[in-house]
TrEMBL record:
Biological processes, Gene Ontology terms: alternative respiration
Cofactor comment text: Binds 2 iron ions per subunit.
Organism listed in the record: Buddleja alternifolia
GO cellular component: mitochondrial inner membrane; respiratory chain complex
Binding partners and assembly: Homodimer; disulfide-linked.
Name of the featured protein: Ubiquinol oxidase
Keywords (A to Z) from UniProt: Electron transport, Iron, Membrane, Metal-binding, Mitochondrion, Mitochondrion inner membrane, Oxidoreductase, Respiratory chain, Transit peptide, Transmembrane, Transmembrane helix, Transport
Length: 331
C-alpha cells in the first residue's frame, strides 16, 4: 500500500514538472512578435516541450501527433533525431513565406549593414601602449602580406579565423569576472560575443567562396593555437592593450577589404553572385554580388574597430567596461 502511495506521489510530481516546463513556450510567441515589430514576418512554431497528459489531454494528443510528424520528417533527412526530449524543429519563414533554410542563425539575427560608417577613422597612437599595439599589428601584417600577396579571398578567409577569437576570449573572461565578482557586465559580455559571432559569419561566408587547401587548414590550426593563448594571456594582463590591438587589427581589415574591392572593380577578381548565406544574413537583394558582400563585411570591420578602440579608451580612463554603456547590437 505504501509503495502504491509512493508511486502515485512520484507520478504526480513528474506530471507537475512537465506542466511547469511548458511555461517556456511563450518565449517563442514573444520572439515572433518582436520580429513582426521589426517588419519581418517570421512564423515560429515548435521548440516546445511536451505537456503532461494528466493536465492537458487535448494539447498532449495534438503534441503527440505533431511530434510524430516531426519525427517522421526527421527520419527522412540525414540525421536521425531522438524524440525522447520533446524538442522539435521550429518552422520559420522569410518575409516572402519561403522556408528559412539556416539553423546557424535566425532571421532576428540578420541585419542591414550600416554603410554610412566612416571607413577612414584612425586612432593616432599617443601613449606607449598605443604605440606597442600599433607596431605589433604593423609587424604582423608583414608575414601576412608575404604569404597571401593579392590573393584576397584566401587572405580574408584565413584572417577571419583569427578575427573571431578576441571577442570570444574577451566575452568569456568578462563572463567569468561577472561570476567571480557578483557584478553585472554592463552588456559587454553580449557585445563582445556578438562581435565574435559576426566575425564567424564572415568566415562562414568566405568559405562559400574559397575552399581552403590542406596546408591552409594546418596553418589555421597552428595560428589558432598560438593566437588564442597569446590573446588570452594579453587580455588577462592588460585589457586596454588587448582592445587597442584589436582596434588596429580592424583598421588593417578595412584596408584589406578595400584592396579586395579594388581587385573586384578592376576585374582581377570575378564579381560572382553572393552566397545564399550572405544574402540572408545581411538581408541583401537576391541579385547581390561578391562586391556587395565585401562592402558589408568591410562596414562590419569598421564597427568592430570603433567598439574596440572605445573599449580601450574606457580602460585608459582607469574605468571598467561595465561603467560605460556596451554597444550591444552595434553593426
Ligand atoms: Fe571580419
Ligand atoms: Fe572585425
Amino acid at each position: 500500500m505504501n509503495s502504491l502511495l509512493a508511486r502515485s506521489v512520484m507520478k504526480r510530481a513528474i506530471a507537475g514538472r512537465h506542466v511547469s516546463s511548458s511555461a517556456a513556450t511563450p518565449f517563442y510567441a514573444a520572439a515572433a512578435a518582436v520580429e513582426q515589430g521589426r517588419g519581418l514576418s517570421v512564423v515560429v512554431m515548435g521548440w516546445r516541450r511536451m505537456t503532461s497528459g494528466a493536465a492537458e489531454p487535448a494539447v498532449a494528443e495534438k503534441d503527440k501527433k505533431s511530434n510524430g510528424t516531426v519525427a517522421e520528417e526527421m527520419r527522412k533527412g540525414d540525421v536521425v533525431v531522438s524524440s525522447y526530449w520533446g524538442v522539435s524543429k521550429p518552422k520559420i519563414t522569410r518575409e516572402d513565406g519561403t522556408e528559412w533554410p539556416w539553423n546557424c542563425f535566425m532571421p532576428w539575427e540578420a541585419y542591414r549593414a550600416d554603410l554610412s560608417i566612416d571607413l577612414g577613422k584612425h586612432h593616432v597612437p599617443k601613449t606607449f601602449l598605443d604605440k606597442v599595439a600599433y607596431r605589433t599589428v604593423k609587424l604582423l601584417r608583414i608575414p601576412t602580406d608575404v604569404f597571401f600577396q593579392r590573393r584576397y579571398g584566401c587572405r580574408a578567409m584565413m584572417l577571419e579565423t583569427v578575427a573571431a577569437v578576441p571577442g570570444m576570449v574577451g566575452g568569456m573572461l568578462l563572463h567569468l569576472r561577472s561570476l567571480r565578482k557578483f557584478q553585472q557586465s554592463g552588456g559587454w559580455i553580449k557585445a563582445l560575443l556578438e562581435e565574435a559571432e559576426n566575425e564567424r559569419m564572415h568566415l562562414m561566408t568566405m568559405v562559400e567562396l574559397v575552399q581552403p587547401k590542406w596546408y591552409e587548414r594546418l596553418l589555421v590550426l597552428t595560428v589558432q593555437g598560438v593566437f588564442f593563448n597569446a590573446f588570452f594571456v594579453l587580455y588577462l594582463m592588460s585589457p586596454k592593450l588587448a582592445h587597442r590591438v584589436v582596434g588596429y587589427l580592424e583598421e588593417e581589415a578595412i584596408h584589406s577589404y578595400t584592396e579586395f574591392l579594388k581587385d573586384i572593380e578592376n576585374g582581377s577578381i570575378q564579381n560572382v553572385p553572393a552566397p545564399a548565406i550572405a544574402i540572408d544574413y545581411w538581408r541583401l537583394p537576391k541579385d547581390a554580388t561578391l562586391k556587395d558582400v565585401i562592402t558589408v563585411i568591410r562596414a562590419d570591420e569598421a564597427h568592430h574597430r570603433d567598439v574596440n578602440h572605445f573599449a580601450s579608451d574606457i580602460h585608459f580612463q582607469g574605468k571598467e567596461l561595465r561603467e560605460a554603456p556596451a554597444p550591444v547590437g552595434y553593426h
